[in-house]
Amino acid sequence: MTAVVSISGLIVTSAILCGIISILIYHLRRLRLYKQASKFSGPPVLPIFGNTLIFVGSNEDILRKIMELGDLYPSPFRVWFGHRLFLGVTNPEQMKTIFLSQKTIEKEDLYKFIRPWLGTGLFTAPASKWRVKRKLIMPTFNSRILESFVEVFAIQSKILVQRMEVELDGDEFDVFDYVSLCTLDIICETAMGVSVRAQTESGCRYVEAVKSVSKGIFRRIFHVWLHPDFIFERTQLGKTQKECVKYLHSLTNEVIKKKKEAYFKVNDKPEKGARNGEYRRKAFLDLLMELTHNEEIFTDDELREEVDTMMIAGNDTTAIINCFVILMLASHPNVQNKVYEELSEIFGNDDNDERTVTHEDLPRMEYMERVIKETMRLFPIGPVLVRAVTEDLDIGEHTLPAGSSVVLAILYTHRNEEFWPDPLKFDPDRFLPEEVAKRHPYCYLPFSAGPRNCLGIKYAMMAMKTLLATVLRRYIIKKDNVQPIQDIKLKADVMLKPVNPITIRIEKRTSTINYI
Predict the structure, then answer these.
(1) How sure is the predictor about 273, in pLDDT bands with cuts at 50, 70 and 90?
(2) What element of type H or E holds 255?
(3) Cα–Cα distance between 368 and 273 in angstroms, integer?
(4) Phi then psi for 162, rounded to 5 degrees?
(5) C-alpha separations of 244 from 215, 229, 306, 389, 497 in Å
(6) Is the pLDDT of residue 422 over 90?
(7) Helices 333-347 and 316-331: crossing angle, nearest 10°?
């Protein structure tokens, strides 16, 4: 019995010693990283936890804390997230170096929490895979294809204003409920080539499923104990996410299945649907399937990943930005009137809103574009971006060490008075060409920057202009209790969102300018 106890004690002691030795070896290997980290300022660090406890709280609290750290410490500043080193950057020149460097082209490891949903699509792909995919997918965003989508933007936007008519002369209502279904119809038709009639038929779960998954991903990122799959998958959050992802994947998989069947039936026909020189509009999925058929590039899973990525990039993002623009227009009647004056010049003073927006109209909406850009400055859809540092990177006075991660605080830079005088004032004329020329080009990063910037910049701007123009030609947008911009509460659920719903009311637009 004594011998058994002695052996058991020896095994336990050996295990403890092995554990201690492993920890010592781990930290010895990271001594260089620790020494380099000590050169950066940042909040006090606790053993084991690092600065993790700073980020305990709601998604609103976490975003606010990131902004506060930007005020407290010069760029770049240091934050330890458990054993992992993150360096916060707010300086435009430093951001330029980071965005353009091949040493920071890899997405941070935290993006793996998005992969159960989007796989290794263009947004989440490792650099080696991203380079190949980007080169293949880029031609699908050419001008001719984008111009063919404007008809879809216009038709669905008209359905939107018709549905909003029930709110005419009533109380304030949540505009996101309307806009998100419109952008969903648009993206389903342009990305997948199918009509889901989200605006006209009830029972669409898609928007709520996306909300649930996005919220869960962001919460998991900032709660270290949820990082292990073994734990997360056994929480209610993990179970809900799995159910929602299964539903979202099933929608895309079903569309891919049907589209492939239809594609191969007509594949041997000349010009695949074109006749008499007419160009048949092709959805993003159609174009990817053509690539796959010709070169055997994308598997069905890869098709789904790219389409799902496009769906999120084109639906949730544009819906949220549109809602923020609508809020800004309702809160600044003088700006709204200037936008309408511009629309009157394009469509005529006696515009009865019957003529749909065409792609030729969009370049003429110059003031509208400045309004959208100023909105995205104050409310950038990606408030924080994170990249892995794979090799030491010199960014001027500092060197970002290999093995760390860099946090690009876009929202902080967009609202920094050093680069934007009176930063919380809504002023679309900041984006007049002569004003833009005065600023550092990396002060404004609503679509990221560098080689991994957003491919859908033109698509998003064209879709937003079409929707907003259609709404403003029909309605005057009003806000009863206008909030100062600094009082609009924000949170991050992967994307920037308002804490409280964006509510407005609408009145019928007459053919004359309405000075409110």
Answers:
(1) very low
(2) helix 236-266
(3) 36
(4) -65, -40
(5) 12, 17, 18, 33, 20
(6) yes
(7) 110
Average pLDDT taken over every residue of the chain: 87
Coil, helix or strand at residue 77: strand
- One DSSP character per residue, 384-442 reads EEEEE--S-EE-SS-EEPTT-EEEEEHHHHHT-TTTSSSTTS--GGGGSHHHHTTS-GG
Over range 168-195, report the average pLDDT: 90
Helical ranges in 73-205 per DSSP H: 92-100, 115-118, 127-137, 143-164, 176-187
What amino acid is encoded at 108 in this protein?
A: E
Q: Which pTM does this prediction carry?
A: 0.88
Cα–Cα nearest to 215, from 449, 443, 492: 492
Q: How confident is the model at residue 267 (pLDDT cuts 50, 70, 90)?
A: low
**Total residue count of the chain as it appears in this document:** 516
Lookup result for tokens 């779960």: 205
- Does residue 121 sit in helix, strand or coil? coil
- State the Cα angle at 282 between 280 and 283, rounded to 5°: 155
Neighbours of 358 (CB within 10 A): 12
Rg (CA), the chain: 25
pLDDT in tens, 151-167: 999 999 999 999 999 99
Q: Which of 398, 406, 433, 430 is nearest to 417 (CA)?
A: 430
pLDDT-derived band at 272, boundaries 50, 70, 90? very low
Q: For each of the domains in the chain, give its residue range(s) and CATH number, in order of start.
A: 101-270+278-382+446-508 (1.10.630.10)
Q: Is the pLDDT of residue 275 over 80?
A: no
Take residue 355 and report the two structure tokens written for it. Answer: 């003529």
Range with the poorest average pLDDT among 155-169, 340-354, 472-486, 496-510: 340-354
